[in-house]
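Input record (one chain):
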Amino acid sequence: MRSFKLLILLFLITGTVKTQSISRLEYYFDNDPGYGNGIAAAITPGVSVSTGVTLITSALSEGIHKLCFRAKNTASRWSETSASLYYVAGTLTPWTIAGLEYYFDTDPGYGNAVAVNLTASSDVTSGFQVNTAALSSGIHQFCVRVKNEKRQWSQISASLIYIAPRPLKADLVKMEYYFDTDPGYGNATEVIIPSDSDLNEAIPVNTSGLTPGMHKLSVRVENIAGRWSETASQLYYKPEPAPSSDVVNMEYYFDTDPGFGNGTVIPVSQGQQPEALVALNTTSLSLGIHKLCVRAKNSMNRWSTTSMVIYYKQDQTALPITWIEYYFDFDPGFGNGTQVAVTPGNTIAANVSVNTNNLGPGGHILFIRTKDTHGVWSETSNLAFYSYAIRIFVESLYDPATQTMHKTQNETGDQWTGEVADHVLLEFRKHASPHILDHVYELEMRQDGYCYALLQGTYTDDYLVVKHRNGLETWSAVPINTTTQLFYDFTSSVSKAYGDNMININGTGVIYSGDATQDGIIDGSDMAMADNDAAAFSSGYLVSDVNGDGLVDGSDISFIDNNSSAFVGVAAP
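The corresponding structure, as predicted from the sequence alone:
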């Protein structure tokens, strides 16, 4: 149960009540209960009031709230309502906390944000006023974190707030927001705001209908005269659901990979999903095309694959964009590129899924351009990259007669569309021990064994590591250089794997199947998993379904049994 919070405030009530004695002081949180219906504060009547007020906050939910004060004089005239933001911390951490700080928008670094005075306690619930005086009008991200007695910091708890522009601050009657497409004034999602409000408002944003990727959040307010403010917009990224409940860190970066752990932090608490929206700082980006890259790390210090979307930054003074298209290498002519679904506007949040499967290995250039409402095309922005290819076969999917793999199945049919047999992970690990991970890619493995990666950089002395969901982790025999070697064929010989650690099927190197537990060895633990699922008549796209036919049965157990009898395990440098 939340304990009460004690906050001492000094008030000098002036303005419309200055010439009369103040007879009542009251406050409320969030919604105005009406004049005289707020919570009364004990005062000594007088022309001015300076008093300490104990706030009753036990009924407040965790998060950001609006604290409002007003006074009434002996002539029964009320002052204007004085408003400020008030934050109620939740259970940010089970620690005994020794410090709490907050900041807006840009993280100044641990210990450099606005400190909040509190008493060290294992009760982490705390209430405090938030100073918004220096904020410009528009959307801002409010971030809070706590520190324990060992100087360890918690993850960030983030909320959105909106500061109304002047001169519309007075007599505001409506606030609304929308994502991406403007539905028209008065038709967006309405946010209830207190009457007589000088708006510093927390925005309860509903993100349940948003798809993962980039989105533009827009907010505006209307005053009593029917005048609308300019629309404030901010780009956000909605992360994919965390790869597992064991995520402890997420981060993003634009264009150049700063290295694992060096990206911009995405708030996430261990065992929970990341923040519903992540504010993207694009102020330092040049106009044109950019790569937004996002990844996660689990408690075993293992990083996920990097999710990438294309972001196109447009000149805000230009006419609204109505069309965006891309092409590779050679210009097909205006309007003949691959069209990208885009919401017309000055800020483009385009979730571009770039298909590189038809590109050969080697260097390529991605071109993007836009067209405005007058039909005028922009200059073409470009991004150079490398397409890298590997070829692999997985034992349980491989048909030596056709030298292809069959498609994996789920309960209703093919798990993947087109010619995709399954997905694999491709890791680039440094040559020198302990073989630090440079990057990991999730690739479509086609039925002919070819997999293509759009590289985030160049790797000059890295081992390739292939991981299939129930195949044995397989390393390249030697380190590779992607600037000179753009294709690695594991299938040409078992010698292409480190330690010749593949099965030879009619002269073709094939990755061993059966490591359902992904512990690096095919043994009784894999057998137990498959045996239990077979006994339960389990079906679907399961790791225990080694041969990928959608059913767990004796045919899957056969692969595991054969390879465990041969003591098959990972061979790595």
